[in-house]
Amino acid sequence: MRKKVTIVGSGNVGATAAHWIASKELADVVLIDIIEGVPQGKGLDLLEAMPIEKRDSYVSGTNDYKDTADSDIVVITAGIPRKPGMSRDDLLNTNYGIMKAVVGEVVKHSPDSILIIVSNPLDAMAQAAYKLCGFPRERVIGMAGVLDSARFRAFIALELKVSVENVTAFVLGGHGDTMVPLPRYSTVAGIPITELIEKTKLDALVQRTRDGGAEIVKYLKTGSAYYAPSAAVALSNSLSEVVPTATIRPPLARAEFKRAAVEAETKPHSACIVWPAVSSALTGRKVPAPTCSVSRCSSTPRALKAVSSVGVKCRPAVGAATAPSFAANMVW
């Protein structure tokens, strides 16, 4: 029996996510929205496309949360999108109110579900959903790690003129200005991109990744990205793949991040401990530190300081932080 996925919000992101999930036959999909007729029409349109795709996923639309009952996964895309000149944080107050109403209905009708948060500002909304729903932290997930890593992979592939299948990218931190793409842990066919791309070009790719959403908003003017975010949602629903996600920081993570930050300030090249610090903080496992190579440490101290900032001080107005994007937190 296929899983049941509810997508809250039938706008561009929600409807396109439903398309990706149904076309891959990952689950049956229920679209729900406050606007009468929109989820029903888009759901029916997608259902009629399934024979063309040779898929048996059932897609429906509704305005009633009763039809979403017993969902295995609930994807929350509801909220207002960004406009040119706006940061993700500008959406906080409005989208928090929407998140509060949605989570209340989800808890009532699907108390055993996993939440995948898409609404912006994503890290703050993931934290809000976690506090509102009372679910274990493993069941409240932000999809931004998948999206940010995909954007970094795309830019690397374009620069080196290689297939994206050969590119692996690693992005830490929040979904926004605190995002930290890590070139040292990003590779093409196993070769670190720091050995393939000169530093100035690499810095430009890192910055373009951080600004990936804003770049699209600038072009669209009246909306924001939805193809890549919705594809990230579909991949987050695929249990056969290990993917980066944003999840709530476990209690021991704060000490790990502080230790890493102190060592970064006092020891040359000690920033190479960023990986074991993050990994052990998120998974509870002790991971041996990789050997420090001076030629590959150039971008890591800044990355570690940014990670430390995210881990210790992130978004005080919200009251807590989400952990860096790393799939082990979800999968292990």
Describe the structure.
The chain has helices at residues 12-23, 38-53, 92-109, 122-133, 144-160, 199-210, 212-220, 227-236, 253-266, 274-283, 300-313, 328-331, and strands at residues 3-8, 27-32, 59-62, 73-76, 114-117, 140-142, 167-168, 171-172, 180-181, 187-188, 191-192. The strands form three sheets. A six-stranded parallel sheet has the order 3-2-1-4-5-6, sandwiched between helices. The protein has a three-stranded antiparallel sheet with strand order 7-10-11, with helices on one face. The chain is globular, with a radius of gyration of 20 Å. Helix content is 45%, strand content 11%. With 332 residues, the chain is of the alpha/beta class. It has three domains: 3-143, 3-Layer(aba) Sandwich (Rossmann fold), CATH 3.40.50.720; 145-224, Lactate dehydrogenase/glycoside hydrolase, family 4, C-terminal (L-2-Hydroxyisocaproate Dehydrogenase, Chain A, domain 2), CATH 3.90.110; 253-322, no CATH class. The model is unreliable at 264-332 (pLDDT under 50).
In brief:
The protein is 45% helix and 11% strand.
Total of DSSP H or I helical runs spanning 4+ residues: 12
Give the CATH superfamily of the largest domain: NAD(P)-binding Rossmann-like Domain
Spatial separation of the terminal alpha carbons: 24 Å
Mean pLDDT level? 78
How much helical structure, as a percent, in the residues?
40-55%
Query: What is the domain tally?
Result: 3
Number of strands: 11
Beta fraction:
5-15%
- In the CATH hierarchy, the third-tier topology of the largest domain is known as Rossmann fold
Largest sheet: 6 strands, parallel
Cross-sheet strand order for the largest sheet: 3-2-1-4-5-6
Reported CATH architecture of the largest domain: 3-Layer(aba) Sandwich
The CATH class of the largest domain is: Alpha Beta
